[in-house]
Write a structure and sequence with these properties.
single chain; seven-stranded mixed β-sheet; alpha/beta; two-stranded antiparallel ribbon; 24% strand; Spore Coat Polysaccharide Biosynthesis Protein SpsA, Chain A
């Protein structure tokens, strides 16, 4: 079994003044709150037990938005990260939630989409042995954690924001780990800024020979919506896909229906409650089509 964690913390300072009075994860990416997108990824790989970690002021708002998840056939719980002390702190905050299971951690401002992506991710879950990371080519590798692979495609190094990058493959904000990740996180030495770095977790798995990098192809799209430009680009991308290709991106109710988390009657009822919106009308149509 795999548990999910959405780390939706931080102060979103790169998005000021947009985030001066609201959480980054509640901003709109086209027609849905940003947090819908990482949730949709976890749902699409079959994860139903999900912990959302955020700031003291944002947790109540997320709970108001998503509730306990039961309407989507999920079990959602919430925890506070009082200060932004690094991504890897999520494993300490979520240790009881993880229990004896594997875990999928996704950052709350990451948007993933592409042909066959759910199938690729589900295969990665089924074949997990240690740590699986997902890489995507970027034009500015100095801004990211970068994975270097050998000629056989094996991961051989991870470098954080390198001055002289050895590749253009950025480590995205989706990570799969076996249950050892909690103990590894507990033994981390904080950085000079007092943070528990996710790169140190990944390097420990690499040292043990149990870290794997899955490269997302050019038909897969990834956005880190941490800046105004990337937030706008993600929204424009979703708008294009939905308006001109007729596919809904991160429609949680539809994913829940297709994954068998809810039935068509429930999906129809959820859509009827939003019948004045295009989103709600779409849900009633898809419930009828798949019912």
């Amino acid at each position: 079994m795999m548990k999910g964690i959405v780390l939706a913390g931080g102060n979103g300072t790169r998005l000021f003044p947009l985030t001066s009075a609201t959480s980054k994860q509640l901003l709109a990416v086209y027609n849905k709150p940003m947090v819908y997108y990482p949730l949709s990824v976890l749902m699409s790989i079959g994860v139903r037990d999900i912990l959302l970690i955020s700031t003291p002021s944002t947790v109540p708002v997320l709970r108001d938005l998503l509730g306990d998840g039961s309407r989507l056939g999920l079990n959602l719980s919430y925890a506070v990260q009082a200060q932004p002390r690094g991504i890897a702190e999520a494993f300490l905050i979520g240790a009881d939630h993880i229990g004896d299971d594997d875990t999928a951690l996704i950052l709350g401002d990451n948007v993933f989409h592409g042909a066959g992506l759910p199938e690729l991710l589900r295969h990665a879950v089924e074949t997990l042995d240690g740590c699986t990371l997902f890489g995507h080519p970027v034009s500015d590798p100095g801004r990211y954690g970068i994975g270097e692979v050998d000629t056989a495609g094996r991961l051989i190094s991870i470098e954080e924001k390198p001055r002289h990058p050895r590749s253009d493959i950025a480590i995205t904000g989706l990570y799969l780990y076996d249950n050892e990740v909690v103990d590894i996180a507990r033994r981390l030495v904080p950085s000079p800024r007092g943070e528990l770095e996710i790169t140190d977790v990944n390097r420990e798995y690499l040292r043990r020979g149990r870290a794997r990098l899955v490269r997302l192809g050019h038909d897969h799209t990834w956005f880190d919506c941490g800046t105004p430009d990337s937030l706008l680009a993600a929204g424009q991308y979703v708008q294009f896909i939905e308006k001109y290709q007729g596919e809904r991106v991160a429609c949680l109710e539809e994913i829940a229906l297709r994954m068998g988390f809810i039935d068509a009657e429930t999906c129809y009822r959820l859509g009827s409650g939003m019948a004045q919106s295009d989103y709600g009308r779409y849900l009633t149509e898809i419930a009828y089509a798949l019912g």
